[in-house]
Amino acid sequence: MVSLSTLKTLLFTLGPLLIPRLMTWYRTQRVQTVTAPVLVRPIPRSALFSLNILFVSALIALISTLPYFSPENIFTTTSSRLQTPNDVLFTRLAVARGGLDLTENDSILKPKIASMDARCLYFAYGPDVVTNCPFCISDEPSTYFYYALPSIVLPHLLHTATLGLATSSAVSGNYGNRWRSIAAMMGIGLAIVECYLFGSYDWKANSRAHRPEEYIHFFWRMRIFRGVIIALADALMAGLLWLSSTNRMFVVPPSPAERMETAMRVLENVRGKLNAVGIMRNAVVRDEGLRRKAEGYWRREGQVMGEVMDEREVVEGVRNALSGRIQVSKVEDEARRYADGITGWQEQVL
To answer: How far apart are alpha carbons 252 and 257 in whole angstroms?
Structure first.
């Protein structure tokens, strides 16, 4: 297994190279999020379904780390040392189980862990491999690894399939499909890492321990490590999917063709509304009753506004506003240009 000193060396060697690149990549994503012409939106329904799949997967992975689902370690159950004789060990095991008889698996396991090497391999690969492997012998410890390899890889294959389902276009549409390759590499990478840890572990480490408290329960630790790391991978993928589907990060700006299509669609809607306004205006002008109502409205509007403007408070307020604080000529020029722009554009459209 990789030692702590090796991990520290890798961290101090690769950290100065990777951390600046990660920071640059994060800032680039933030800038794209700010500058991209998209708005933050609620999470789409298809992406929400993918998040539910990832949540269930992470929950199952965490539940699998509970002691209830972990295989029994007979040395921990009996508080025995590796040097304890077989007969004493299994007698203690029967007593620890309330005086029950040994099971069939216990009878198969008993002769297979008679030697110190076999017991060390028991801590490295677990009771199932040592009990059920038909060709494993302690003189060739690699045979235990070969037999355990399918059980090591299977959880990661199921996890990779779950990630593939969550990021498939049939389930999440384009929101998860963009992360599909990353999800596949993540699932396969975790399987490779665990296989490497099992293959490189010094299975004789417990033979040098003097007390049961110093034993390394490698198989049981790897079960916990596997469940936690799979849950973290699901949480990371869910976070990426949530950020991208809601346009909070990793925004993909629309292509020029898509922007042109959107702009043309907006212009068509505006043109349709202006045509509708023109038709309504023509109908009002040509109908005598509607025309009289419109004229009456604007006549009353003029009277009301005239009465308001004749009030003393309004007159004083207008005089104060015009006395040096507002350039009337500039306001008139801006209003004229604004009106010319509106009417000229309407004539071109209509």
So the answer is: 14
